[in-house]
Write a structure and sequence with these properties.
alpha/beta; single chain; 8-stranded parallel beta barrel; 238 residues
């Protein structure tokens, strides 16, 4: 497979007091997509952005906007994020199966499952598509990628988490590479994104494994030369 890399900038590491300027920086730097990390303080131990901020992001950029819903009960919010202008809506596999014993109650993280209810998540995938949006699914590092097998023909986008979600600036987990390779081995030829610890040292291996979307947060926004960061990532070829 040979295709261009898509670089998606997560505004989690942007200056929220200057969000319009941050989005303009993305456009000037050649970023392809804006990534909005939505956290509720329940699914992950942090609170960040909701539909109102997503709507503001939409107003300030023409770039595609992906919303990563790190929230409990995502089905209650699909319409709100679609109406706010998200182009891609990504839900977590861990919201569609029985949680492991160590993460079943509030305050136990990361959330992990061994199997999911494919009927339940497929209903939400189809609901997202019915709103005219791309449907994405993601999973935490401890959740086996094999649970996504029933979804591969229906989902548009798979996001492989290479850190436990909640905060930017974490170290990349190499186990993500095996998940990417497994997905490509199943014949999944749509977008595979990786989120967490993506930088100059980790990106080549991520791309070699088969991912074509690189999500960058602190590596881009905290760089002295964001444009060079974007260009370096985009120079890689799957």
């Amino acid at each position: 497979m040979s295709q261009n890399i898509i670089v998606s900038a997560s505004i989690l590491s942007a200056d929220f007091g200057k969000i319009a300027e941050a989005l303009q920086l993305c456009e000037r730097s050649g970023i392809d997509r804006i990534h909005v990390d939505v956290m509720d303080g329940h699914f992950v131990p942090n609170i960040t952005i909701g539909a109102v901020v997503t709507q503001a992001v939409r107003a300030y950029t023409k770039l595609p906007v992906a919303t990563h819903l790190m929230i409990e009960n995502p089905w209650d919010y699909v319409d709100a994020f679609a109406d706010a202008g998200a182009d891609i809506i990504i839900v977590h596999a861990e919201c569609y199966g029985e949680r492991r014993a160590a993460c079943q109650v509030y305050g136990q993280y990361p959330k992990e499952v061994d199997v999911i209810d494919p009927g339940k998540i497929l209903r939400d995938i189809r609901r997202i598509k019915a709103k005219g949006k791309q449907a994405g699914v993601t999973l935490n590092p401890g959740t086996p990628v094999t649970c996504l097998l029933p979804l591969l023909n229906d989902v548009d986008h798979i996001l492989v988490m290479s850190v436990n979600p909640g905060f930017s600036g974490q170290k990349f987990m190499p186990s993500a590479l095996d998940k990417i390779k497994w997905l490509r081995a199943q014949g999944f030829n749509k977008d595979i994104a990786v989120d967490g610890g993506v930088n100059a040292a980790t990106a080549p291996g991520i791309v070699k494994a088969g991912a074509n979307v690189l999500v960058t947060a602190s590596y881009f926004f905290l760089s002295h030369d964001p444009k060079a960061v974007a260009e370096g990532l985009k120079s890689l070829v799957v």
